[in-house]
Q: What sequence folds into this?
């Protein structure tokens, strides 16, 4: 493991704000600002991957249900249409899919919880439908699937104000009936939108696959893959009207790199605290 040393000035100020925000919370002892990366990730950050090795959103995502691994599990690149592609593999020894599914709604109850995940870069993540988080008789997935998280966070040095609309994997073209057979027992998939100017700008895939000592998280981000302006009945597909150079400025190789670095830092950090956090605050424990 190697220490993370990339902390832009705005995030240096944020970590001190977060330290104060969480100080009186019962889970404050899980606020750990020393961050690490696995050394074997470094080569994948030093140069972009071959774009021909990227998979595309839609039915091609079912390749993630095949045994073994793709040729590139961790990497980034820009694509010819100007969009960006990020693929990331993180291992969670000693953790279970139940812990992952619980985390994906628990962290959205109050802003302070989100800071545990990435103390230097996370500002706030709040569920739009707050009532479902504490409604009785629901599974963990029912508390975040179909819900939206309103999120402020730094990706690199840039503050992103986004919304993630969580959907079932089937809505992205993944065969949900085949998940269990592929040892996948958890997911967090969704569409990412910039709140201003209200453009859906990315597709996110997280699939949890069992391993002998816990689980592994296989993530894919398709950045500026299909641009949609607005939401609901007023949504307007503007993708074909946006030329590749403009997409590349919005996302492309630059954002794909920053997304990979962010993903590897936050999920490596989460892997180190999730089992103990769940043991203390999971179902039937301290409600925090």
A:
């Amino acid at each position: 493991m190697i220490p993370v040393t990339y902390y832009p000035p705005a995030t240096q100020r944020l970590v001190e704000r977060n330290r104060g925000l969480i100080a009186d919370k019962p889970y404050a002892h899980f606020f750990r600002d020393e961050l690490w990366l696995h050394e074997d990730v470094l080569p994948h950050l030093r140069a972009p991957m071959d774009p021909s090795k990227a998979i595309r959103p839609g039915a091609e995502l079912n390749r993630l249900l095949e045994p073994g691994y793709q040729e590139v599990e961790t990497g980034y690149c820009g694509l010819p249409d100007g969009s960006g592609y990020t693929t990331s593999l993180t291992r969670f020894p000693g953790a279970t899919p139940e812990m992952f599914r619980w985390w994906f709604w628990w962290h959205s109850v109050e802003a302070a919880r989100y800071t545990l995940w990435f103390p230097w870069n996370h500002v706030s993540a709040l569920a739009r439908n707050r009532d479902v988080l504490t409604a009785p008789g629901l599974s963990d997935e029912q508390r975040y699937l179909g819900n939206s998280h309103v999120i402020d966070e730094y990706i690199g040095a840039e503050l992103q104000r986004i919304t993630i609309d969580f959907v079932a994997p089937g809505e992205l073209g993944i065969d949900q009936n085949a998940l269990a057979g592929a040892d996948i027992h958890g997911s967090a998939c969704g569409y990412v939108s910039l709140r201003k100017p209200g453009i859906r700008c990315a597709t996110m895939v997280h699939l949890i696959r069992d391993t002998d000592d816990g689980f592994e998280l296989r993530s894919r981000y398709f950045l500026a893959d299909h641009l949609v302006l607005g939401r609901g009945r007023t949504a307007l597909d503007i993708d074909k009207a946006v030329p590749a150079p403009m997409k590349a400025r919005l996302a492309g190789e630059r954002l794909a790199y920053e997304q990979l670095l962010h993903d590897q830092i936050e999920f490596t950090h989460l892997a180190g605290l999730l089992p103990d956090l769940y043991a203390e605050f999971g179902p039937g424990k301290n409600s925090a």
Remarks:
- The longest strand covers residues 214-229.
- The helical segments are 9-22, 42-46, 97-106, 111-117, 131-134, 140-144, 244-250, 252-281.
- The chain has one domain: 6-281.
